[in-house]
């Protein structure tokens, strides 16, 4: 297995459009039922000493469930935006590579000058010189092999 991370913008979009809203709705349902349970506290505990402890625990539980639903819904929107951005980026990269490939194929490029090395040789070296490095003098050694 490769160490490279792979992703599919369509799968990311699907999670954002279907999975996250479904989960958020599930948590909203739990929050609604928890709210009903909160209103029934008096009949369950009366004026018992556990009532105050139950109120504190209920409040923590309700906040967690409510915020989980809200955050999951927001994550869905975020994943949709990520997938859209990724699709745009992939399209731009494909266009850029295609343009560069066309320029290279048409020899529509020029050598890039360097501050440190002379311009690259205009033609490939002769077969007998393939093992010689044209930049050996700049690199500080004899004709080193590539």
Coarse shape: rod-shaped
Spans where pLDDT lies below 50 across 5 or more residues = none
Number of strands: 0
Helix fraction by DSSP (H/I, runs of at least 4): 55-70%
Question: What is the first-to-last residue Cα distance?
Answer: 32 Å
Write the layout of secondary structure elements.
Blueprint: H1 9-39, H2 41-45, H3 50-105, H4 136-139
Helix pairs in contact: 1-3
Explain what you see.
The protein is built from four helices and no strands. By secondary structure, it is mostly helical. Helix 1 packs antiparallel against helix 3. The radius of gyration is 32 Å and the shape is rod-shaped. The model has no long low-confidence stretch (mean pLDDT 80).
Short description:
This protein is mostly helical. It has helices at residues 9-39, 41-45, 50-105, 136-139. The longest helix has 56 residues, at 50-105.
